[in-house]
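WARN retry 2 of 3 for item q-0093 after timeout on previous attempt; input resubmitted unchanged.
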Amino acid sequence: MSSSSCKLMPDIVFLVFNNGVCTHEQYSRHPESPNLTSMGDSDYSNAQPFISGSPSHDADGQPSSTVVGGPGTAGGGPTTPVGTPTENVPFASGSSTPIHVSNTFNLNARLDGLQPDVVVISIDKIFFAVHYHKLITSSFNNFNGLLPPNANPSPNIPLMSIVPDHSSVINIALHCIYELPCDKYNNPFEVLAASLPVLSKYGLPPSRYLARGTPLYNTILNHALMRPIDTYALAASNGLEDLAVAASAYTLHLKLHHMPQQSADKMGTLYLQRLYHLHLSRMDRLKELLDAKLFPHVAKPHCSVEQRQVVSRAYQLAGAQVFYSATPADSTPRM
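OK item q-0093 returned
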């Protein structure tokens, strides 16, 4: 687009791959087009092709690959792949600043059978190469308005978008879109919890991507054994019925009066009431079973009325001892 056709400052940046060489071009945004984050020359001077490798980790633990480019070497610049080396792609940029690229979402990946045509850059400068059609059809708000609704990017001219979120939560969101498990990253519970509002922010309903049996549902549920109240509260605060029901089973060994006030506030009145009802109803049902009278029978030579009364009192005493030592988590075999 020529400068005479539009007087706006350029704020849409594309990567251009010509004969294996990575350059970039900027295009002015039309006044009515969605607002894309601008990227000036100073921000983009480090842009280079992506080289994937086996998982490595940056300072924040986010798996990534690193490529370093600089002038004066064969192929336009030296490359330092982290992990398994891949094909060396010449660079047009003369910068030696490393670029960290997601190992799962990189330009060499074929997750959807096609070459990626969108590059998402997190706030900690991790590059994710993904597909426009996957993002635009999965999100009900055009990925928080960052993607034009009728764009036509291509692998040679991918659309770039900078997001103000950390790579760890963006990585989880993209795994949800592609229905991929993210267990291999061993994300702590806090990171998984932080990803839920990010899903909502980018138009990805948690109720859909955390439905029963989905990868993220299973990943979060795996934390319920060690953090049952936190997992239940997370599910409750986001209205995730199936996850809350599954997580509640892991709370049965806990004494609810020891629950932190913050957790009770987070799960809300309805889910807090349901959790108490679960614990109390199990104990009430146990009491009903233990209070049941022994079925009487007619007197027999080896079991008189007096003997039956002795056995009945012993049964009631044993039932009382079981009830007062039981917890909602106790099962029939354990008793």
